[in-house]
Structures are given as structure tokens and as C-alpha cells.
Amino acid sequence: MVHGRVSRLSVHDVRFPTSLGGHGSDAMHTDPDYSAAYVVLETDAEDGLKGYGITFTLGRGTEVVVCAVNALAPHVLNKDLGDIVGDFRGFYRQLTSDGQLRWIGPEKGVVHLATAAVLNAVWDLWAKQEGKPLWKLLVDMDPRTLVSCIDFRYITDVLTEEEACEILRQSQVGKKEREEQMLAHGYPAYTTSCAWLGYPDATLKQLCSEALKDGWTRFKVKVGADLQDDIRRCRLVRNMIGPEKTLMMDANQRWDVPEAVEWMTKLAEFKPLWIEEPTSPDDILGHAAISKALAPLGIGVATGEQCHNRVIFKQLLQAKALKFLQIDSCRLGSVNENLSVLLMAKKFEIPVCPHAGGVGLCELVQHLIIFDFISVSASLQDRMCEYVDHLHEHFKYPVLIREAAYLPPKDAGYSTEMKEDSVKRHRYPDGEVWKKLLSAQGN
């Protein structure tokens, strides 16, 4: 029985100085410090359980998300957890439809990132009280209850509540076998850790070699800053991994539409499965034009990590603008909104390959994609989940990768909880790590 009144909400600005090693660097984000607005929910329940939620940021600006979380706090404080999850759609809409706060959204940008952090904490607490990992909480829900967590506003022209229920009902067939398959073999992953744009060739070669030894067969390379450099680096990676293994490319929104087509035509010789975020994440028709132009070359378009909300995904699907859909556990409005996107992707038969390049994103999104396979898509065709090998040591329940696959988490919750010492040391600007760095920089 879900219970307890939310008695406290705290939020922390937690940053890791990843820019010092070039980790996470790409054509648009050259010096990211992987960071999070980290929310902790406490209730008056006797079990003493807490809910932990994160949203992912890149350093500067995390303090703005923290402010937005505090602005949303009155919607959560003194609410009964049972009432929240009993009318989750209503609670989601309350958070996203605050008559004043929505003006700085609506359902996009900082206020939506803050919404994700708060809701991620609620889901973590719900799963913990039920004693299940989040993926299992979702898998065990009956279709009607699951659908009641989703706000269908603005997407009913593509997906109605009844259609969503029907998709879930049809996917009941073989569900038990698919759950057993996940527990035995895990969900297929690909690695981005080898080829960040800021890495020198020696590092790239070393990491590629190690990944191959560890059984990785799918690799992603960052591109978009300099064409000749891209050609050289893509050739290096393709030669190392061989012709049979899968290669993807990611431009992180660097190009205009004609430039994307021209650039990728020149990189086509390296046989990429997809080009990710070739242009502005808001340009639906631009993505559609690129997708159409690159189809004859056998290159698909992938996007989603910076899609504001379910409405953008709806339009991308309607416009046939993507071949691979990339949900993000912290960009959209938590599990609630991601559920609507997974169901729309199923209706359009577009494979979901989640984004997970960031602190905690692997920990969270593994739950969503494992649920998707068991209860929605029922397919692994052209599907894989991103993996980056950074900062897992700071989490209480880190991801477990075996033979290039995510093994389903066994611990109750959403895997969002960070180690207390890590939070304390990396809190900005007063944590020990940042005190030393800022002092060294003379700030």
C-alpha cells in the first residue's frame, strides 16, 4: 500500500568536473561538467524510505534548475503519496500546468527538467514502497493503471487512451518469456565512451581496443566540428572495429539542413547506421528532409535527447523524420511522459534506442527500455540502449553491464540514489572537490 505524506523536499546542485578529461565532449558541448539537480523526497511514513530524483545538466545552469525545483515544491509538499500515484495523470498536469510557472515552459526547458527531477523522485519512492525495481513495477501494472499515469493532452490525434490500452493488452502475449529473456541475457547496449570529440587519437585507439576485448559490437563516434578530422577519426574507428560491427555518428545539432546532407554524404563510406541530432532538435521538417535525403545511402536519422516533450516526438513521427527514436529519462516529464512516447513509437513501428550519455542516465533509462521490450515493443530488432562508462561509482545501485548488455536491476526503486559522500564532495560550490578546483582557478 503506497502511503506517507511528503514532509520534506530538498534539492542539491551536484557537479562532476568531467571537462578536465574531455569526457562527454562533442561538436556543440566542448567542455561539459556532467551534473545533476538532485532531489530528495521524505515522507512521514514509518518505513523511513526516501525518493531520489535527478535531472541531467552540463554544469553552469544547474543552479537555475535547482531554483525551478524549489518553485515546484509547493505542489508536492504535504501531499499524500497514495493520492499522488492514485491520480498520477492529475498530479502530472498540476506540475506542468501551474498557471504562472508554465509561462516559462510550458513543458520545455528548465521548468520541465525540474519537473522530471521531482517526478523521478516520486517514481523512485513508489517503486521502493512496492519493493520492486521500477521496470518491474511498470511490467506488473495492468494496462488501465499504466495508462492512467499518462497525460494524453495534445497527442490524441495520434494516440488515444483506448489505443494505448490496446497496445499494452496485445503485448501481454509472450510477456513472461520476454521478462525471462531480459533476466538471463539483458538488453543490448552500444558504447559512446570510446570516441568523445575531445579525445586524442591515442585515447580513442586504446578505448576502442579495450571495448572490443570486452565484447562490444556497436560503437558511436562524435562528429560535426571539422569534416577532414571526422573522416580521419571515422576511418580510424572503422578500421579498428572492422566492417561487420555497427557504427553510429552523432553531430549534436551542429549543422544546418543542407550542410548535414552534404557532410553525411562524405561520411557515408564508413557505413554508419545512423546520424544522430544532425540539426536543431526543434526542426521537425529539417529532420524529415535530412531523413529523406540520406535514406538512399542507407543512413537513418536518430534524435530525441533534446526533444522538449511528447508533442515534438509526435510530430517527428508524423513527419517520418526519424528512423530511430531516442528517449531521455530526464529531458521529458519523467516516466509519465516517456510512457506516452514509447507507446507512440510502437504505433508507428519506430525502434526506440534511448539516450544515456550523462550522469545517472544509464541508471534510469535502463528501466524504461527493459519495460518497453517486455510490455510494449516486444522486439529487439534495430534496438539498443546507449552506455557511457562514466560516474557509475557515485551511485548506490549502479548499472550492471555483462557482454555488452544491461542486466535488469534487482534493487527496489529507480536506481536514482547517489552515495551520500559523493553528493557531499561534489556539491557546487561548497563541496570539497569544487572548493579545491575553484581555489586553484583563483575564483
TrEMBL record:
SUPFAM superfamilies: Enolase C-terminal domain-like, Enolase N-terminal domain-like
Entry keyword annotation includes Electron transport: no
Keyword Transmembrane helix listed: no
Entry's Gene Ontology BP terms: amino acid catabolic process; carbohydrate catabolic process
Chain ranges of the Mandelate racemase/muconate lactonizing enzyme C-terminal domain: 201-297
GO molecular function: L-fuconate dehydratase activity; magnesium ion binding
Pfam families with a match to the protein in the record: MR_MLE_C, MR_MLE_N
Top-level taxon: Eukaryota
Reactions catalysed according to its record: L-fuconate = 2-dehydro-3-deoxy-L-fuconate + H2O
Cofactor(s) the protein requires to work: Mg(2+)
Name listed for the protein in its UniProt record: Mitochondrial enolase superfamily member 1
Organism: Bos mutus
